[in-house]
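ok so I'm stuck.
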Amino acid sequence: MEHPDKPLYDLHQKETVEFSGLGNTMKPIHSLVKENIKQIKPCIHGAEVYGAAEETGFKPEEILDFSSSVNPLGPSKKALEAAKSALNTVAAYPDSNSNMLRQVIASHFSGLSKNNLIISNGSTELMYLFAEAFLKKGEKALIPAPTFGEYESAVRKTGESPKFFRMGKSLQIDAEAFKREMVGVKLVFLCNPNNPTSKLIPQDILLDILENALAQDILVFLDEDFLEFVEEEKSLSMIKSINKFPNLFVLRSFTKIFGLTGLRIGYGIANEEIIDVLLCSKIPWNVNSLAQPAAIAAFNDEDHLKLTCKLINEEKKWLQQELSQFETFSFCAPDANFFFIDIQKTGLTANALKHRMLKQGILIRDCSSFNGLNEFYIRIAVKTHEENERLINALKYSLKSV
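replied:
not stuck anymore, here's the structure
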């Protein structure tokens, strides 16, 4: 899992606490906290530009962030204009269920209605909401490792413990072994393409897992946040299969390809029963008045999406060729818009290389915090050509003295 070693609360605090110097005492706050909350460890993520700036002395805007795999072109201009135009609405409550946005998204997919959609405050909200709504006491969730760490946090917040499937050296899911681990679980989390490995789950394996889950009444939470960066996205997406698999929930985001990262907006697609449960479970007004119109404009700006995909495909090929020149790097061709690289042969840990790169104003992702990975893996996003050239030059300089 992506998190530091310390839990959120120190379990060895004083037995009583004095407040305001007035002699008033009570039990320490940590003793009033639920046991499962005490054990939650905050996830470490990429995009920690502000922390990196504080560490290095650079201004945040001076740091080139390769640790976060979002659209290098940024948001659509139409999305920014829509957000700006919506500023005069912020005195009123937003539409609590984001109905207009749900309708716009549904119209892009055959056979969907807005009743198949829920809009969220970033896609991460739906991970927590889904686990909270469906995991009962004593039930298990199965999570491959390594993968995105918030799935584990979402499960632990419910008071339950996740069950992990170790993918091994191949970093791929073995269908038969995975199905054996599915016996007796309530919920399966899958990420396709996977973060941080940048690999797609083969379609036959994914369908096999979905069919096996359906036969056992197991819910499948399928995270497709990065799938829109894949050329075959439309044929590979399971959105078209939600009626065939009533146990399936598909997650999408406006953070990655749409670049609306700071507005925090995502969405989920499933059969109406699942959506009804989640709509009843979510907090009201979870998506703000600027995010909703910006997302509508972004979703409708197909030219910006085409330009983004063209850039990613071209630069991914160029970057793969350049990274292949580093004899001490080991990696497979990525399916998503980021590279997952084993750097053990360099003699450096990921943390050491990260800090060498930071001295040059470039932030890369140290993947040692992912469950199932050692200290020798990094993740690098695909950005613009000029930025990718700067990355390669910085890597050469950082490895020169090794």
